[in-house]
Design goal:
Number of domains: 1
Strand order of the largest sheet: 5-4-6-1-7-8-2-9
CATH class: Alpha Beta
Number of strands: 14
CATH architecture: 3-Layer(aba) Sandwich
CATH topology: Alkaline Phosphatase, subunit A
Largest sheet: 8 strands, mixed
Radius of gyration: 25 Å
Strand content: 15-25%
Shape: globular
Length: 445
Amino acid sequence: MKNCTTLLITISVIITIVSCNETKKEVKESPTEEQPPNIVFIISDDQAWTDYGFMDHEAIETPNLDKLANESHTFTHGYVPTSLCAPSLASIITGVFPRDHMVLGNDRVLPGDDKGGKPAWLSTWRADNYSTVIEDFKELNTLPKLLKEKGYLSFQTGKWWLGNYENGGFDDGMTHGNPERGGRHGDYGLEIGRKGMDTLNNYIDLALEKKKPFFMWYAPFLPHSPHNPPDSLLQKYLPKAPTEFVAKYWAMCEWFDQTCGELTDYIEEKGQTENTLFVYVCDNGWVQNENNSRYNPISKRAPYDYGMRTPIMFKWKGKIEPMLDDRTLVSSLDMLPTVLDLVGIERPKELDGINVLNKTELENREAIFGEIYAHDFNTVDESLFYQIVITEPHKLIVPNEVNKPNEKIQLFDIYKDPFEQEDLADENPEIVMKLKAQIEESWNE
């Protein structure tokens, strides 16, 4: 009897162990919450909206960005709210206008500052003036900060004007921002792309090793000057361009495209393409002068489309349907709210953009807006140059009466006249008044 009892106990223990193992197996194999997508922002630096293969440029070849455009929901009538890099990038990362994040220009100049005949960025007090801007910026919501809610790791590379990468909420990055070591607008970060992609690739590997979704800020110093492309690309464009200056710029555009291909190829090699959301934009435009290395004043820092317009793309394979939209108006301010909706994070109330993949929000939008300030800025009132409103089909440019007293209001039909050659303001006073009222309403909000 004792042996039978022992046998029964043994059998019971075995059944219990097997049952526990099966339960553990079921728990292990049960579906877990789907990991949110990796997010990669690709940000061109100083490139006109026309200067891509998919935008039908006569000479510039951009096969990798053409492929990205074909695989994305691509808006060809995208705009940045301001046509200078520091404020434009700050708006991309915060989703608010420059007047809200207060990075109005590239350098801050206070009353009484003596530059000694030097540009602000070469003056010793530049870092001191900018420090208060950075301290205020650190209190704002940024995309890296918001993504922490979903467990994202974030990494900064390339252009970054606001000191150390940590000031934007990034976990890690390439920009130290120390003015004593040459920190101003990217320092070590500006090497990405121009000197290879290893640092970026290593961080992707780290995030995958930790099994964490990642946010990658890829804002290389390309095709930005200095225009010193690889010789093979320069030789390719010299016979096609009107001058060597133009050939160098065109070659820089293709060099940037090559680095974008290296980035997307690496993510494909890691098996992450279907789990990665790519977002593309350019910080501001550029028109290359034919006879020197400078830009044409109708582009960078200007209120015209050559300065403000950019393709904006959203690609998430299998989740976002590819299409080329050559009509809808969108803004770089829309990038942040669109991304937050896609990954399921509640939007902060202060955002100035919308989810451009939401048809209802697009249909309810009447206009997008822009504002341009002095390169060396102080306050909004002292530094404002232009206010812009863009609708379908009109764009109104309102120069500041104090800072631009000799300029007149301009009105263009940007669909019939995409290069803004015919000013329609004098013959359409009603439209001008209506659009000015929209600007005032936007600023009052």
